Amino acid sequence: MSSSSETKTALRIWLRAELKAHSPSVAAATSSQLCARVKTSSAWQNARAVLLFFPIPGEPDISALLTDALTAGKLLALPRFNAAANAYEAVRVMDPVRELATGPFQVREPVAACPVVALNRLDLALVPGLGFDARGHRLGRGKGHYDRLLAGFTGMKIGVAFDFQIVTEVPREPHDVALDAIVTPTRWLRAKTD
After folding, report:
1. Which superfamily, per CATH, for 3-190?
2. 166 contacts 111 by C-beta, under 8 angstroms
């Protein structure tokens, strides 16, 4: 195992423990603050088509933004796993209550009837992760699915995190896709270039 892989593994273990220890009531309150911060941003207000995600336990709960996107007339897409391609694809959702089901990784994702959306139609992506740094580097869960999805994305990529998920440095490998910014309940971090 490389030094970078070892560092990522240790960071994942630490961040998973922090997320597990995070109080559900604090997580709910800070998730609401984060959503409010997103909704007042020019990136959100100017986006016509957005790629969001349905949060898993421990992630900031941005599910309210799904409804807000539709109410604002935005095209809403969420990732859906394509087993044949072993990759996620962006898929349009018009009714999150009826059109989401539990996928192969126990993540809620669009059902099969929802159409795939070309990545070049999307202006903004909100991206989950275990950890982020000020340079826009993201620590995912270790399978590289989001990096492969974002590799073809040309819109603005914004990481979504609780404040304690911002770390000094996330080791970066050649396949890792950098983000343009990170939003937390208390601040925006515009990615600094390397």
Report:
1. NagB/RpiA/CoA transferase-like (3.40.50.10420)
2. no
Distances (CA, A) of 71 to 74, 83, 90: 8, 31, 20
Q: Six-digit token pair at 188?
A: 């925006």
| Nearest one of 97, 93, 27, 88 to 58, comparing CA atoms | 27
- pLDDT (tens digit, 0 to 9) for every residue of the chain, 194 residues total? 456 677 888 888 899 889 888 888 999 999 999 999 999 999 999 999 999 999 988 899 999 999 999 999 999 999 999 989 888 999 999 999 999 999 888 889 999 999 999 999 999 999 999 999 999 999 988 777 888 899 889 999 999 999 999 999 998 887 788 999 999 999 999 987 65
Running DSSP on this structure, what letter comes out for residue 1? -
| Tokens matching residue 60 | 């900031």
